[in-house]
Amino acid sequence: MEEPQARAQPYTYDLGHLLCDDTNPLPAHDSTTVEATLSKTAQQCAQGLINQLLTACPIVKSNDDGALHIKLPAPSTRLPREKPVPKPKEKTTWEKFAEKKGIGKTRKEGNLKFDEASGEWKKKYGYKGKSGGVEGGVSGDWLTEVDVNEGKGGDKMEGVQKGPKLSKEGLRVRETKKRGANKRR
């Protein structure tokens, strides 16, 4: 191989990207020797890059297969992106409204409460919740005290269960009245 000719400006190398930069102008050439001139310049640049790699970078033997590798340094040239940096997405109508009203996203962690008796985190409410009762689905109010003055007999839970039924029945009556008023129009 030929030694690279002395140049007005030496090559600049970026070994991290395996880049050799030649800032010198191309020598004068005619149209018949363009390919030969470019080929010779590229060969000199590649030879300079290989020489620089072998002198500046450490050669490491791999533990896996015993092959030799050249450890490249970090790149010094920042390469441009292929596409422009994406613009930030515009907020949706709901996100603008939620920000204005101070509504945050609900998180699952906020629904948990530490149960000191069992030493575990449990839900505040709902299935297997802390206030929902004991494991196995038994409600926390399985025992109710009976007042001595109230008398004997009767189901004490009867009144507790009637409450929701009465409110549902009242809603149904109101809805039927509204429907009847709408039909008259």
TrEMBL record:
<feature type="compositionally biased region" description="Basic and acidic residues">
    <location>
        <begin position="149"/>
        <end position="159"/>
    </location>
</feature>
<comment type="function">
    <text>Involved in ribosomal large subunit assembly.</text>
</comment>
<comment type="similarity">
    <text>Belongs to the RRS1 family.</text>
</comment>
<keyword id="KW-0690">Ribosome biogenesis</keyword>
<dbReference type="GO" id="GO:0042254">
    <property type="term" value="P:ribosome biogenesis"/>
</dbReference>
<feature type="region of interest" description="Disordered">
    <location>
        <begin position="136"/>
        <end position="185"/>
    </location>
</feature>
<dbReference type="Pfam" id="PF04939">
    <property type="entry name" value="RRS1"/>
</dbReference>
<dbReference type="InterPro" id="IPR007023">
    <property type="entry name" value="Ribosom_reg"/>
</dbReference>
<dbReference type="GO" id="GO:0005634">
    <property type="term" value="C:nucleus"/>
</dbReference>
<keyword id="KW-0539">Nucleus</keyword>
<protein>
    <recommendedName>
        <fullName>Ribosome biogenesis regulatory protein</fullName>
    </recommendedName>
</protein>
<feature type="compositionally biased region" description="Basic residues">
    <location>
        <begin position="175"/>
        <end position="185"/>
    </location>
</feature>
